[in-house]
Amino acid sequence: MQALKGRTALVTGAARGIGRAIALRLAQDGASVAVNYATSVEGAEALVSEIRGAGGRAVAVQADVGDVTQVDALFAHVEAHLGPVGVLVNNAGLHRGGRVERLAPADFEAVLRASLVGSFLCTARAVPQMKDHGWGRIVQISSPAALRGFAGDAAYGAAKAGQLGMTRCLAVELAPHGITVNAVLPGYVPTEMTSGLSDKSRTAIETSIPCGRAADPGEIAAAVSYLARSEAGYVTGVTLPVDGGIVL
After folding, report:
1. From residue 207, how far is each of 51, 195, 236 by CA, in Å?
2. How would DSSP label each residue in the chain?
3. What is the pLDDT of residues 42-83, one digit of tens each?
4. Both ends of the chain: CA-CA distance in Å?
5. d(Cα 103, Cα 196) in Å, to the nearest integer?
């Protein structure tokens, strides 16, 4: 069953990791998928080829989602090639950590720009057409760092917590228009973002998770898939951890 057939989905930061898994799953659900990327052109093009090879529709679009001009161009390209965006997944993000006294202000701002400002700009651009159609699904990809403190993660935690505040406010604002806004909080997933961790650190993280293991990207994508469907039309403003119990 292709629950999203006839819909267009835009996944930001979709060339690799969790974003890639989400884009693949939405394509399997029948959506035409726009694969946004900042720098990973090869990964984005490979993903588009995979989706098209399976009979789906997809385009790769480069844009820095923290830049309003590039966001406008991104949506214009998607609308011209796939149609208006009905499902928006704000997945793009950046991690720069460090103890607060050593964290450069420029790094703090860059993290907020990628995750929080990017989510705002993409959402603001998507909403008018969602309102016109009386239907829309917005999913923020946040993090357990929004709910639980991790030393050295002030920038990332602030950005991801900001997404949760935005989610709740927008859920109330947009519900009368048939638009839901929810947040998914992925736990530890071995991706390029976490590849710099030592074996000792990875083991420590996994043993701290009640489920005792890392997540598979497909498990995160499954949660997004549900929230993107018409069947989830009565679910809005939700913070959904998919983290093996790490925030408990």
Report:
1. 35, 18, 32
2. --TTTT-EEEETT-SSHHHHHHHHHHHHTT-EEEEEESS-HHHHHHHHHHHHHTT--EEEEE--TTSHHHHHHHHHHHHHHT-S-SEEEE---------GGGS-HHHHHHHHIIIIIHHHHHHHHHHHHHHHHT-EEEEEE--GGGTS--TT-HHHHHHHHHHHHHHHHHHHHHGGGTEEEEEEEE----SGGGTTS-HHHHHHHHHHSTT-SPPPHHHHHHHHHHHHSGGGTT--S-EEEESTTTT-
3. 999 999 999 999 999 999 999 999 999 999 999 999 999 999
4. 34
5. 18
Mean pLDDT of the chain: 93
- Return the pLDDT at 167: 98
What is d(CA 248, CA 237) in angstroms, rounded to the nearest whole number? 20
The pLDDT of residue 220 is: 97
- Which of 37, 156, 226, 234 is flagged as catalytic? 156
Q: For residue range 105-142, list pLDDT tens digits in order.
A: 899 899 999 999 999 999 999 999 999 999 999 999 99
Identify whether 156 is a catalytic site residue. Answer: yes
